[in-house]
């Protein structure tokens, strides 16, 4: 049996379906849909040199990789590759071939440092370490049973505070973009990100097929967007928090918790049965909020870094 690596074929719906399915089997704590996979491939900024790869064995997709350059990082030469092989198709060389192909491509486009998320399991970490990657920060995948769990009760906003949804910004999403940009720049990460291109943000984020505008909550303070909780849904009852944040001037007032609680209650009312999210392991304030909601850790990933010479 021969394993080959090739680019995902965006014009082939079956190929995109197989990519999403392989990713779901390897990483079920994230929403993977064909529409989401295709959107990222088509709408990621050209400067990212983004690619989606598949490892194929005798016509079957058994592994996947997403890779590119961190074009929105102020320091040049930062690249990323995230490789996942179906758990029932490991030890066939697919992962090694995906990594080698990705590294060669990124190095050819100027990457000098590579970042990769690796599941915090012995064989996954050993695989990365054997290829020159060293462990860095970690992050948790969390889940919440919306169908059977008990959410904290909804609270009325304090004076001067009101709750809206992303749908209320349909005519002019720029205030939402500015809030997203500020909170993203403060998010804990090995690779800094700066959201500066509004038009690209519209294509990549605002028009993302999984972004649920009706379930995304925005908190206004005296009419100004101050906090938000962005919701993704996949149409099967699964809901994921894509980002929760508060503008610097309004932190410490419980506004992120207010936004997320508002979104979760409406998600459950809309028929969502499972809520997913992810947190940097060092983001204690957000982990405390999620624990308050009843989220439990499902798995952990460790960011690994390799310096290219």
Outline the structure in words:
By secondary structure, the chain is of the alpha+beta class. The chain folds into two domains: 3-111, Aminopeptidase (3-Layer(aba) Sandwich); 144-301, Aminopeptidase, CATH 3.40.630.30. The chain has eight helices and twelve strands. The chain has helices at 13-26, 34-43, 94-108, 122-130, 174-185, 198-206, 255-269, 284-293; strands at 3-7, 51-57, 60-69, 78-85, 113-119, 134-145, 161-165, 217-221, 224-233, 238-246, 274-280, 296-307. It has a twelve-stranded mixed sheet with strand order 1-2-3-4-5-12-6-11-10-9-8-7, sandwiched between helices. Helix 1 (13-26) crosses helix 2. The two termini are 34 Å apart.
Summarize the model shown.
The chain has 309 residues and is of the alpha+beta class.
Taken as a percent bin, the fraction of beta residues is 25-35%
Question: Which range best describes the helical content: under 10%, 10-25%, 25-40%, 40-55%, 55-70% or over 70%?
Answer: 25-40%
Total helical segments: 8
Biggest sheet record: 12 strands, mixed
Number of strands: 12
SSE class: alpha+beta
Shape: globular
| CATH class annotation of the largest domain | Alpha Beta
Number of domains: 2
Order of helices and strands: EHHEEEHEHEEHHEEEHEHE
Return residue spans where pLDDT drops below 50 for at least 5 consecutive residues: none
Q: Under the CATH scheme, which architecture of the largest domain would be assigned?
A: 3-Layer(aba) Sandwich
CATH homology superfamily of the largest domain: Gcn5-related N-acetyltransferase (GNAT)
The CATH topology assignment of the largest domain is Aminopeptidase
Strand order of the biggest β-sheet: 1-2-3-4-5-12-6-11-10-9-8-7
Distance between the termini: 34 Å
On the 0 to 100 scale, the average pLDDT is 95
Integer-rounded radius of gyration: 20 Å
